[in-house]
Amino acid sequence: xxxxxxxxxxxxxxxxxxxxxxxxxxxxxxxxxxxxxxxxxxxxxxxxxxxxxxxxxxxxxxxxxxxxxxxxxxxxxxxxxxxxxxxxxxxxxxxxxxxxxxxxxxxxxxxxxxxxxxxxxxxxxxxxxxxxxxxxxxxxxxxxxxxxxxxxxxxxxxxxxxxxxxxxxxxxxxxxxxxxxxxxxxxxxxxxxxxxxxxxxxxxxxxxxxxxxxxxxxxxxxxxxxxxxxxxxxxxxxxxxxxxxxxxxxxxxxxxxxxxxxxxxxxxxxx
Amino acid sequence: xxxxxxxxxxxxxxxxxxxxxxxxxxxxxxxxxxxxxxxxxxxxxxxxxxxxxxxxxxxxxxxxxxxxxxxxxxxxxxxxxxxxxxxxxxxxxxxxxxxxxxxxxxxxxxxxxxxxxxxxxxxxxxxxxxxxxxxxxxxxxxxxxxxxxxxxxxxxxxxxxxxxxxxxxxxxxxxxxxxxxxxxxxxxxxxxxxxxxxxxxxxxxxxxxxxxxxxxxxxxxxxxxxxxxxxxxxxxxxxxxxxxxxxxxxxxxxxxxxxxxxxxxxxxxxxxxxxxxxxxxxxxxxxxxxxxxxxxxxxxxxxxxxxxxxxxxxxxxxxxxxxxxxxxxxxxxxxxxxxxxxxxxxxxxxxxxxxxxxxxxxxxxxxxxx
Lengths: 271, 370
Fold this sequence. Notes:
Strand content of chain A: under 5%
Number of helices of chain B: 8
Strand order of the largest sheet of chain B: 6-7-8-3-9-10
Largest interface: A-B, 15 and 24 residues
CATH architecture of the domain at 61-231 in chain A: Orthogonal Bundle
Number of domains of chain B: 2
Number of helices of chain A: 13
CATH class of the largest domain in chain B: Alpha Beta
CATH architecture of the largest domain in chain B: 3-Layer(aba) Sandwich
Number of strands of chain A: 0
Distance between the termini of chain A: 34 Å
Helix content of chain B: 10-25%
Order of helices and strands of chain A: HHHHHHHHHHHHH
Radius of gyration of chain A: 23 Å
Largest sheet of chain A: none
Oligomer: heterodimer
CATH superfamily of the largest domain in chain B: P-loop containing nucleotide triphosphate hydrolases
Distance between the termini of chain B: 29 Å
Largest sheet of chain B: 6 strands, mixed
Number of strands of chain B: 20
CATH superfamily of the domain at 61-231 in chain A: MetI-like
């Protein structure tokens, strides 16, 4: 009875896993199929071809877009980690006038949907003359309220004696943050890094608003313009460009999945 | 070695006063113990000296230098924390050497000091381990080593032994004491444990509600507490207290409480207003169980008659809980001829060893020479 139950359980889990993984594998394999074969459901191509990737590269500046995306997402991720942890440290561990107001304001930012600030932010970027620039893509994302609050919550749990001890050892606040707090906060920093990187990497709407110059476009933006504008020409090329978009995120996930799963498990336990 | 001075130091957190007019001089090489219950302000005083808290008013000097507004790193003091506060992601070696590296001490000198501390505290085999891989006692040693390796002007200990079990605590107490005597570094040690205070301190400061109650050598505090708080705080088991009044009779003074009378030593009595409620204090180890015939009721050193409620056998000594009328007393006696529960016994109260406190808690009997 127990064995039967186990078999049923594993069968169910396998079906669920296949349901999730199949579309991704299909997309990956279809990028290597010739045009007439792309429509089939088979996962193994009869004949492997790199034409879809060659065509994609030839029709739009994907190399440049990839570099743009990497630059934008990396800069934003580093900035969110550095500035976010500095702000979180101050909010969690320093006593200063207005600390509560700052906490409340940061919390309030979470309640405002991004779409609501889109137009005012756009107007601001126009006023600053930043349309068609990296600044327009990067600067609005340098600070992130969710990350600050996540880091603050973690920093609050670090014992005060550790900070005192570091101060006695001769450290200033910045050094305490980067030599003591950062190594201890590695799991949280990894989570913040993954979410920030993924969020920035996948962002389409904002780049579409502020960048029109093809040379400055990010990968998802170029992809959207390319695919929706009919530039791809075929499903295989569209899928190849989607693959180029998704691979860095998958690679990042593979390297950081331990932290990722830990954070999910932690969130489950803490409710 | 430098001295430390607190000059009329006050500390308030918002409206709450934590340290009130703390005025004290700690001599070169002295081991001073700050002792008091929770909320007495003892740890705050240590943090004020370390520079981890700002004083509200007053001046702190180390070696005559005013350090009141200096940050911790410019004060050249080292602190051992209650929960060790070791950096969990660093090895023992890194924990020990970090303070020196930050001060740009030459590498060879850092190695020399780390080896010296490792040898002195038995840490050599542990230098490459992380705090998680150490026992409580080993972590405590690393925490001490981290303070020692800096060769600071002043050592601060903030309840360093309170997380250790009883056996280890006693062992570490001895080690700290001998280490301090060897290094002769001016040391301020905070504890709530009066046994630690008595055994370690050259002098003890008893604190309550942010104020100094008494400063003195351990034996002075034990023999001549200046108030009821100190009398109750210093000494294990704690002093017995009886509430009553003092009456004059036949030219002598007698302490009377419901159901008992105790003669007082006339030669030690200061001015006593007889109508005022008083508290008589007698240490459990100063009560003796009398085996001879009963003495006259109010003669000096007269016996108290009572019934044994409980006998706690501790091995070398025993604690006898006795009911005397409505009062309960404890006597700490040697194990010879112990009474049984329910026995009626007589206790002798040596007049020379009683303490008397006024309504405000102040000691009323003149100081005995120690």
